[in-house]
Specification:
- The protein has about 160 residues and is of the alpha+beta class.
- It has one domain (about 15-155): Glutaredoxin (3-Layer(aba) Sandwich), CATH 3.40.30.10.
- Helices cover about 30% and strands about 30% of the residues.
- It contains 5 helices and 9 strands; from the N terminus they run βββααβαβαββββα.
- The protein has helices at about 45-55, 60-65, 75-85, 100-105, 145-155, and strands at about 15-20, 25, 35-40, 65-70, 90-95, 105-110, 115-120, 125, 135.
- A 7-stranded mixed beta sheet has the order 2-1-5-4-3-8-9. It has a two-stranded antiparallel ribbon with strand order 6-7.
- The termini are far apart.
């Protein structure tokens, strides 16, 4: 398990499958702010609400010159169904290998009902147009989170 990169660090590169086919890499977002939000699983209550909240603010993020991208270990085809079912307006990337999740330090040992397992710790990164991490929200609570990230994106030149 890699340590989470800090504020001011260069964002770890990635090259992942995305919803709708194709691939996405960090360089695709050069010159534009990038909101990378990591979430555990498509179609669970918290993950669905978070995706809907970011989608509802997609136009505002665009005005702030920011692109919102969700990342989970779910396959791209599952992301396609999730996006269609909930009419989501954010891009979703698939990290089935968990290599990117580990590089960002969000692939962690978790525990539920005394059982330990590996999973995604809900975390959001705000990355500037040069690929530098400017803000991190670890252990995200969904309520009000998308709005807080939008305010930070607006404040970032």
């Amino acid at each position: 398990m890699a340590e989470m990169p800090g504020i001011g660090a260069k964002a770890p590169d990635f090259h992942l499958e995305r919803d709708g086919g194709g691939k996405a890499k960090l360089a695709d977002f050069k010159g534009r702010k990038l909101v990378l939000y990591f979430y555990p699983k498509d179609d669970t209550a918290g993950c669905t609400q978070e995706a809907k909240d970011f989608s509802a603010l997609a136009g505002d993020f665009d005005k702030a010159r920011a692109t919102v991208v969700g990342v989970s270990p779910d396959p791209a085809k599952k992301h396609d169904r999730f996006k269609a079912k909930h009419d989501l307006a954010v891009a979703l990337l698939s990290d089935e290998s968990t290599a990117m999740l580990a590089a960002y330090g969000v692939w962690k040992e978790k525990s539920m009902y005394g059982r330990k397992y590996m999973g995604v710790e809900r975390t959001t990164f705000l990355i500037d147009g040069k690929g530098v991490i400017r803000e991190i929200w670890p252990r995200v609570k969904v309520a009000g989170h998308a709005q807080a990230v939008l305010e930070a994106a607006r404040a970032l030149p």
